[in-house]
Design goal:
This protein is 65% helix and 5% strand.
Amino acid sequence: MIFWASTCRGLMILGLIGFSWSGCLPMGSQAGKRRVSAYLQKAENEKSAYDYKAAAEAYEKALQIDPNLAKAHFELGLLYDNDLEDPVSAVYHYQHYKKLTADSKEKKAFINPRITRCKRELAKGVSLAPVTQDIQKHLQSVKQENTALKKERDKLLERVNQLEDKLRQAKAQIERLKAGPGAGTGVEVSESGGSHGSGSEFGYHTVKRNETMYQIKEQYGITLKQLMEANPNVNPRRMRKGTRLKIPYP
């Protein structure tokens, strides 16, 4: 009886020694806690030295002793995500961290976007099915047709702009004829006393505040070139209120 008791006690001692040597100490024991702290400290030191692979290995060893160590899962998620470019491992540890901190809304708000981003990175690596030759030809045909339609559209827009410009000029000329010389437009009769249609080639316009040559030429239905040629000494960029411009009759 004494022999069997001694034998069982010896086997238990050997089992504990083997268990401790293998590094699988129970987390509840003081030795286990010390080993975890040592691995966590080693991981921090390796991160400070920019040896991210060694840091990840230290965190993994801490998890072998305590698989529910939230800090290790969190740090491994960040390492695999930001430094080791391993989105699969990053998602694995992020999800474990979420389970272990399920009551924390702030931590979920931080982790969820990172998980989504890692999954997107994984999706980028998925190759698309090969496109058949018929589909390629169809796409090329559609592309050519689209290019031709764009050219046609540009031509039509150019024509519309030309017609609109002519219409504005015609309207401005009609309004001038209805209003009479200089009525309500800032234009004056010519210095010789003549007016539009009386033999004078120019009228005059006194520039208003913030008025531009483009606005003035639109008002009188003339081109910008005609207005500038009639006023060669006027710099359009330095034109001020009160500047007197010659307005050639169209």
